[in-house]
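Hi there. Long-time user, first ticket. I'm pasting a complex I've been working with (about 561 residues overall). I'd like to know whether the download I got is complete or cut off, because the file seemed smaller than I expected. Thanks.
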Amino acid sequence: MKRALIAACLLLAPCTAARAERLIVSVSNHRVTVTPNYSGEELVLFGSVEKDAATPADRTAYDLVVTVMGPRADMVTRRKERTFGIWINTDYRQFLQVPTYLALFANRPFDAITSPEVARRQQIGLNNVLLTQRVSGDFGDVVPNDVFRSAFIRLRTQHGLYREDGAAVTFLTPTLFRTGIPLPGEVPIGTYQVEIKLFANGALVTKTETAFEIVKVGFEQFVATSARQNGFGYGLVTATMALLTGWLASIVFRKD
Amino acid sequence: MQLYLPVADIPVNILLVLAMGAAVGFVSGMFGIGGGFLMTPLLIFIGIAPAVAVASVASHIAASSFSGAISYWRRRAIDPALATVLLTGGVTGTALGVWTFTQLRALGQLDLMIALSYVMLLSAVGGLMFWEGLRAMMRTRSGAIPPRRTHYWIHALPLKMRFKRSKIYLSVIPIVVVGLVIGFIGAIMGIGGAFILVPVMIYMLRVPTSTVIGTSMILTLVTMLFATMLHAVTNHLVDAVLALILMIGGVTGAQFGARAGQKIRGEQLRLLLGFLILCVGIRFAIELVIRPEDLFTIRETGVSG
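Hi, the file is complete. Here it is re-exported in full:
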């Protein structure tokens, strides 16, 4: 008992010394299952700001930025150009290990929360999130108004996979907050990281992380994994299914 | 009613897909074709990735051609020898087609190639059929007898073989080539190819109408089964759930289509089919020529973690 208490004190000591606030958060569902009738869902993130003795008394207004990142993947963005009268893919850019789902939520517009410099460092807003590209053998992000980068974000946004909303986080009391995390129908499967950053007077006060996962279960899971991992058996089953359906139809609809 | 497709990774309305399967099945039963050239574009239109559409439609065509082939087999309307020779070409062509499909996908030009082949093939075949149907209708109206050429350069080729059930004596070279071409374009475009194969067999190879449809169905069946297998093994793009819904809708629709088809005269049927094929071709052409709504596209190249 005593030892545990000391250990707890040791663990908490550096935190409490450095930061005056603590964030406690929870997601409504840590395991979202994709079932046959799945067509999108909305998770809810709840949390509260815990103050302690070290909190400056004049600190009352907080700002909160929630970043949700889906599993990472390599993607290619291609641009069509008119060649010989028809539109064909010509130029392309590779995006390396970028999040397949990305949502940025705050309680007020991002530029009102903090300075552009802090926003860039903390990757606040879709324009400031790091999206690594391969540019002729080199790796790095480009300026926010790069055509491929903005097209990439625009297309992901159209599919509901990238989003930013400067009004999605609501403070129910000065310290209690909630936000919805909308997940579209074509949501990528995998682990999602949620990062919650607390700002006061434009400066980062503290941050915390949580996670949830999206999994296919039962039949969906079975079909998807066998298609990927056991292509031969899967093809064989599909082919047999085709033959069986055709055979059944010829019996059911036999005219004589 | 929403249903989540496990491989295509999108939710679709099950009734919509079922209705699409039935509608295409109706058309395919009416004209005695697989209907892949209608099914694949429709699937692309409702938002399924072209690659997944092509791969999944292959198994759907296999199902409908198998149910057709069974009834033709019972009526002894299939020439086994001719089917075997066609298949040697067909299987090779399919393997080449799937390999090309994989290469094009890696280059990012698959969607363009699918669209381009649709435009060229469908407008050519559709235009020819439409024209031929019109001429045949005018001929029957004026009562003239169509001129019939008795000898072709094809009949001068070596390696001749006797096909008993079809009662023809023909070189195997053009038959293998036809099988090869049909297998190749079938694997790339997600079509069975019956709408090209049947006219070619009748007009160029002089296969009698009694065995032509049944035999072409065997080619379609085997190449499409083979294509399903290859697409599943190499590209992992076959959506079995989507395929099953399409099959159920397709085989049901085909029965009603076949009955409707018997009530329409041959030339009118060909005219109608030619028109339909031409329309799909033009639809693809328009898409290529007009400025796309969005010049940019995204594709995932590899998932990790």
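A couple of notes from our side: Strands of chain B lie at 2-5, 10-13, 160-163, 168-171, 296-303. Chain B has a mean pLDDT of 81.
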